[in-house]
Amino acid sequence: MKIGIGLPNQVPDMRPSIIPAWASQAERAGFSSLGSIGRVSYPGLMDTVALAAAAGATSTIGLISHIMIAPAWPAVLLAKEVAGIDAVSGDRLTLGISVGGRSDDFLVDGLGPRDRGKRLDRDLEVYRSVWRGEVVDGASNPLVPTGTRDVPLMFGGSSPASFERMARWGEGYIGPSVPVGMAAQMFDAAGSAWKKAGREGSPRLVAIAYYVFGDAERGRANVRHYYGASGEQVVDIVDSGICAGPDAVRDAVRAYAELEVDELIFIPALADIHEVGRLAEVVR
């Protein structure tokens, strides 16, 4: 099982200038991937910006969004943005997306939370069309350079439609930031949807878990604040899955390895550059 690390792009009121240094140090430490989580209505850094900054500061480490709220974007603009990040990185990006669950993240006129699942299904066709260099409606030229690839897609979410979408369009499933036992049920559902769709082999499975080594109380407060709009029950579930300290991190590594996930990405609860080295020392 590979071990990745998240960027601190959605730690409340983080300093955006930390992203390149964080990414560079994570690459030197040997992590498999740099991940980002995404909200719009929050005092953090947009996931596309964080991933672009990380792409420019690194040369080998993988990049993945886990997840990006795709239906909050106009499809052609997100497709072009993602293609650019992937190209700058040298084809290292995996686009992890879902429909989102907080209505205040849908701020673009005409792209509200209603029917966002149906809209995403249509948008997926647009992404592929843009990446293949086809001229989309309203454009006079292709939107991306020749040679742009289809960016690999992964999906999050817990509804039947989410798993069906993953099995049709994606290369795998990204689990939620919940305790291991709950995540295991999601991975099982992803595997079942994959087989039902007639896909060969197994889906790529990526688990995510929050971690903190420094000020655990502050880290928990940051995570709880981030999920506050989702309701107290969700906040408590996410909080109960936070890995506070070395022993909790090691327990998570063992538990997810037993589930045979392909990669576990630890998301920082603090925007403290020392958290990169602290995690690396524990998971090496």
Automatic annotation (TrEMBL):
Transmembrane segments: none
Entries under InterPro entries matching the protein: Luciferase-like_dom, Luciferase-like_sf, SsuD_RutA_monooxygenase
Keyword Flavoprotein recorded: yes
Domain spans labelled Luciferase-like: 14-227
Protein origin, superkingdom: Bacteria
KW Ligase (keyword) present: no
Protein's UniProt name: LLM class flavin-dependent oxidoreductase
